[in-house]
Amino acid sequence: MNICGNVWKFGDDINTDYMAPGFVKNQPWELQKKAILHIHPGFTAGFKTGDVIVAGENFGCGSSREAAPANLKKLEVGCVVAESFGRIFLRNSIAIAFPVLICKGITQAFDEGDRLELDFAQSLVKNLTRGTEIRGTPLPPELVRIVAAGGMMQLLKREASQDGTGAGNV
Amino acid sequence: MSGMTMAEKILARASGRESVRPGEFVTAKVDLAMANDAQFPQACKALEDIGLKRVFDPGKVVVIIDHWVPANTPMVAEMHRGIRAKVKELGLRHFYDAGVGIEHKVIPEKGHALPGELIVGSDSHSTTYGALGAASTGIGLTELAYVMYTGKLWFQVPPSIRFNLAGKLGHGVAPKDLMLALLGKYTTQAGQYKSVEFAGPVADAMSMEGRLTLANISSEMGAKFALFAADATTLEYLRTRTDKPVQAFGPDPDAQYEAVHTIDCSKIEPQVAAPHKPDNVKNVSEFASVRVDQAFIGSCTNAHAEDLERAAAIMKGRKVAAGTRFLVIPASHEVMVEAMKNGSLAVLVEAGAMVGTPGCGPCAGGSTGVLGPGETGIASTNRNFKGRGGSAESFLYLASPETVAASAIEGRIADPRKYMPAAAK
Question: Strand (E) positions, B98-221?
């Protein structure tokens, strides 16, 4: 799986409240969309489908709300590559098969607007603007299996139908 | 071979292994899954979407309505109706409807979290049950759906760090101040992907309510688990709350820690976290000029009976400053009843407090008591992220219930110690 997009940059400790703010909960998607990552006005105004996010430490810290990675996925953010992630955000992203990668040094490797290509299987990040590349921390096989299945519910659907514990015709 | 930390012991048992080491992946059976109104409905839908309509054990999935209570819009009321119907349909044995309290208070109160257990909850502050010696952590709705059906989940065994809490907390210095001081010093990333253990004389002497506060805000440190050894205080707390056998539980004496931090708690002063991060912490005296529109005592962090009692001791015979709103939301019905009986609620109401239904209140931003644009609040809650407690143009300071009470009196951030009766000699 290769993902290619233009970079929006974020700093450290970007919390999930910023990705799924309480003050637009239950509002129409068109309104919610405008509040996603509202702390970066450029992003809100200029995001284009397929753009990607490069972030500092602890991206997605805070609340367990799965709407955070789900909103990024729905907005069609290509991927998030960060120095590190809040642990629940990382788990939630894997669970819904949204591509995320831990990559030490990523913030130095990209300026906003640079073109990024991620080879997810190889954990390899290329800066097509600078002509450089950097390798992230590979996801362990246990988790690759979840992402490859299309997320945990797809995996469960398969497991439940195989072991006969499902509710019948699944 | 060296011994294991609390997290390692629990993950080894839950995954059927002799021992585990940091970095290993395990599939572990959970002893309990807690689900709230924020994620339970979507988790049920996720299961239904793939044709699954049962849970692994109807006694081990606990459902609580607490984020929006009482229902504040027809949409929320409808969502709550759906939850009640679903609980019946799945035959879940433990359900706590609106008004019983906040999940992280109710789970301990009702004896659902026991030492040595592995627990997951659909809320980041599920680390709270570590106060009772349970390895407990937050997950999202898809993982909740998976665990509700299978009773198991993947875990990476975390490295453990230990805070050795030495000395003694000063008069008027609360467990919250200690935790804010730790956040200020070690930052919001100190516990990232780690299991945090609290030990030492201050941890040993701390009440169960204080321990719940520490384990709760450990989430702000990024902690996966936040654990206290289960001791006499734990066993006494659980004595009337569960019929199950309960034993003391702690790390092996030769357990390995990635780091051990020793903190002299005697030096800690009342602390305040300024907007918009919980580790933006300084001594309360640094904020004496900050005017507050609202002071709020509530949330899963700091709305215990003990918190209300200490706030009442400060408010007794005093009034809330003109131009400041004072909001109090007890963490649970049990807390509210106790605060009524011991008189602390009467003191707070006489001082001018608005009292809300036990639940999350404005902390999650979706319910009553939120801040408007340009407003400043001080709260005994856990997060001061921009927009968390209302408008994205509001400013939220975090402090102990004592400091919140003193600030309500003055209408600006205030040191609670000047309002406290002298310490017993």
Answer: 118-121, 135-138, 152-156, 160-166, 195-199
Kind of pairing between the strands at B152-156 and B25-29: antiparallel
Give contacts of A 42-81 with B, CB under 8 A: 57-58, 61-66
Over the range B291-300, which residues count as b (16 or more CB within 10 Å of their CB) and which as e?
A: ebbbbbbbbb
Note the maximum CA span of chain B. 66
Could you report the per-residue pLDDT of B328-363, keeping only the tens digit for each? 999 999 999 999 999 999 999 999 999 999 999 999
Q: For residue A22, what pLDDT is reported? A: 86
For residue A63, give the chain B residue with the closest CA: B124
User: Which one, of A52, A50, A46, A62, lies nearest residue A12 by Cα?
Assistant: A62
d(CA B314, CA B122): 35
Provide the H-helix boundaries in B332-375.
Answer: 333-341, 344-351
- Interchain contact, B25 vs A23, CB within 8 Å: no
Burial class (CB in 10 A: 0-12, 13-18, 19+), B247: exposed
What are the pLDDT digits (tens) for B288-297? 999 999 999 9
Please state the pTM of the whole predicted model. Answer: 0.96
Read off the DSSP letter of residue B244: S
Residues 6+ apart with CB under 8 A from B353: B315, B320, B326, B327, B328, B408
Residue A15 pairs with which residues in a beta bridge? A61
Separation between Cα atoms, residue B230 and residue B248, nearest integer Å:
5
Name which of A23, A95, A140 is nearest B365 (Cβ-Cβ): A23
Judged against a pLDDT cut of 60, whether residue A166 lies above it is answered with no
pLDDT digits (tens, 9 = 90+) for A67-103: 999 999 999 999 999 999 999 999 999 999 999 999 9
Torsion region of B124: left, alpha or beta (phi above 0 gives left; psi -120 to 50 gives alpha): alpha
CB atoms within 10 A of CB B10: 29
Going by the DSSP 8-state scheme, the letter that residue B286 receives in this structure is G
Cβ separation B193–A92 shorter than 8 A:
no
Task: Kindly list the residues from chain A whose CB atom is less than 8 angstroms away from the CB atom of residue B299.
Answer: none
Strands (E), B150-236: 152-156, 160-166, 195-199, 225-228
Contact at 8 Å (CB) between A79 and A103? Answer: no
What is the tens place of the pLDDT at every residue in B256-291? 999 999 999 999 999 999 999 999 999 999 999 999
What is the interface pTM, i.e. ipTM, of the complex? 0.94
- Best probe of the A interface among B72, B125, B144, B154, by most A CBs < 10 A, is B154
Residue B154 zone, left/alpha/beta (φ > 0; ψ -120 to 50; rest): beta
* Closest by Cα among A37, A69, A50, A58 to A117: A50
CB spacing of B142 vs A17 below 8 angstroms: no
In this structure, what token pair is assigned to residue B357?
């239904």
